[in-house]
Amino acid sequence: TKQQTRVIKRNAFSPRWNETFTFIIQVPELALMRFVVESQGLITGNEFLGQYTLPVLSMNKGYRRVPLFSKMGESLEPASLFIYVWYVR
């Protein structure tokens, strides 16, 4: 399943989405969660900025910092996402 936040304009350094997504996962042992950050350009379209993928079962509840990596797997430190994780098994 794919879900996308709304576009945040004029706040590239510290955007806040304050959105909630709900997923129903049938086989959590095989499920991955992928975070992708893109910049929306009027002429060039969406430009990839960073990503992170992890197994759903490795996500702990609570507030978490998600580091971002390039397409080649290089760390983009200090770029990261601050998320809140909650789930029911």
UniProtKB/TrEMBL annotation:
Show the InterPro entries listed in the entry: C2_dom (IPR000008), C2_domain_sf (IPR035892), PI-PLC_fam (IPR001192)
Q: Which CDD domains does the record cross-reference, listed alphabetically?
A: C2_PLC_like
GO cellular component, alphabetical, reads: nucleus
Write down the required cofactor(s). Ca(2+)
Superkingdom field: Eukaryota
Question: Does rRNA-binding count among this protein's keywords?
Answer: no
**GO biological process entries:** intracellular signal transduction; lipid metabolic process; positive regulation of cytosolic calcium ion concentration involved in egg activation
Q: Do you know which Pfam families this protein is assigned to?
A: C2
Q: Print the keywords alphabetically.
A: Calcium, Hydrolase, Lipid metabolism
Its name, as the record gives it, is C2 domain-containing protein
* Originating organism: Lynx canadensis
